Amino acid sequence: MPLETVSVIGGGSWGTALAQAAAMAGRSVSLVARDAAQVAEINTHHTNQRYLGEQVLHPGLSASLVASAADVIILAVPAQASRTALGALDPALLAGKPVILSAKGLEAGTLDRQSEILADMAPDAIPYVLSGPSFAADVAAGRPTAVTLAGDDATLTSALAAALAGPSFRPYAADDRIGVEIAGALKNVYALACGAVDGANLGASARAALLARGYAEMARMVTAMGGSATTLTGLAGLGDLTLTCTSVQSRNYQFGMALGRGQTVEQIIASGAKLAEGVATAPVADALAKSLEVDAPLIAAVHAVLSQNIDIATIVAGLMSRPLKRED
Ligand SMILES: NC(=O)c1ccc[n+]([C@@H]2O[C@H](COP(=O)([O-])OP(=O)(O)OC[C@H]3O[C@@H](n4cnc5c(N)ncnc54)[C@H](O)[C@@H]3O)[C@@H](O)[C@H]2O)c1
Ligand SMILES: O=P(O)(O)OC[C@H](O)CO
Fold first, then answer.
1. Are 170 and 24 found together in one domain?
2. Are residues 169 and 206 in the same domain?
3. 140: alpha, beta or left, given left = phi > 0 and alpha = psi -120 to 50?
């Protein structure tokens, strides 16, 4: 299967960064964006100022308003927009092609993972999931980054990983799409919680406890949904959970910090907060946990803060006063 040309759908931070990584790997890359001025800027000045500032983009990367045929499609729009973005593409572009899903979130309403959305919208496409600790600015700047690329066929997944690998971008092939998708979606929920703990000045010990108990909760969710808890020891699990829950660079962590300082969701959004995928994913994860009868008090707590504007001190007091249990 040829893997030379790549079309990246979504001209935001992550789409541009992945397009840059693919171009640095030697692929011929088309970045499909919705804004004509942005497309012109990328093609003329080789920058995408709105999303990546002064970062110079690789000459092997060009932008376009319309997707054309490519060997590999990378979908890099927010999780809640994936269905619409796929629906806007000519189905012939997706049929039989590797489609790499890079959004980290679960769909509101359907509770679907990104792979499930793809299966609905393009059943003939070959699904892959890319996730792991990777800030767009780091990837675009060529700073060392390692990610997980999960697909069903081991040989094809390794070939695709090799096609995207460059000196600073190292995809590890894996096969647990469900585990990788759930980990990527849930780490954003825990990053909101960790940001809130830090915004409320509850201390580094509280944040570490949250990380560890979040990891245990994530393992229960992954297992209940048919993935493997072992996946969580890797980049898409522990790697991304650690990065996102401890870095002010994370938009989810920043959003959580604002919550911890006492701002409401509406105030944070009105102040121009960037995309924080955990906000849309928390209620979906809470609904999934309840329907699967998974004990997920941290997801429920984040959902309660977001949906009822309950203050962090009250939420933490509730978590701390639950009956003591074994650390299983
Ligand atoms: N930014 C990162 O560091 C990073 C890293 C890894 C994964 N991700 C994931 O990538 C996904 C996208 O995030 P981002 O950081 O690029 O967000 P972003 O806000 O920087 O950009 C989103 C882009 O999607 C476009 N878009 C929105 N709806 C669309 C639609 N229906 N059709 C076509 N384009 C549409 C917007 O115009 C925008 O260009 C998220 O799920 C995020 O979790 C981001
Ligand atoms: O800025 P965030 O919180 O969306 O995190 C970006 C990436 O998912 C980190 O791996």
1. yes
2. no
3. alpha
Protein residue whose Cα sits closest to atom 18 of ligand 1 = 12
Q: Any idea which ligand is nearest the CA of 276?
A: 2
CA–CA distance, 280 with 83 (Å, rounded to integer): 15
**Domains: count for the chain:** 2
**Nearest-CA neighbor of 105 among 192, 189, 217?**
189
Residue nearest (by alpha carbon) to ligand 1 atom 23: 12
Q: Which atom of ligand 1 is nearest to the CA of 82?
A: 31
Flag whether the ipTM exceeds 0.90. yes
pLDDT digits 0-9 by tens, 58-95: 999 999 999 999 999 999 999 999 999 999 999 999 99
The CA distance from 322 to 317, in Å, is: 9
Rounded Cα distance between 202 and 78, Å, is 31
Q: In angstroms, rounded to a whole number, what is the distance separating the alpha carbons of residues 128 and 173?
A: 10
Neighbours of 112 (CB within 10 A): 19
Distance CA 314, CA 318 (A): 6
For residue 100, the domain's CATH number is 3.40.50.720
My answer on whether 166 and 295 are in the same domain is no
Instruction: Give the active site residue among 97, 187, 290, 325.
Output: 187
Separation in Å, CA 242 to CA 134, 137, 152, 216, 233? 11, 18, 26, 14, 11
Interval 296-328: pLDDT, tens: 999 999 999 999 989 999 999 999 999 999 997
Can 325 be counted among the known catalytic residues? no
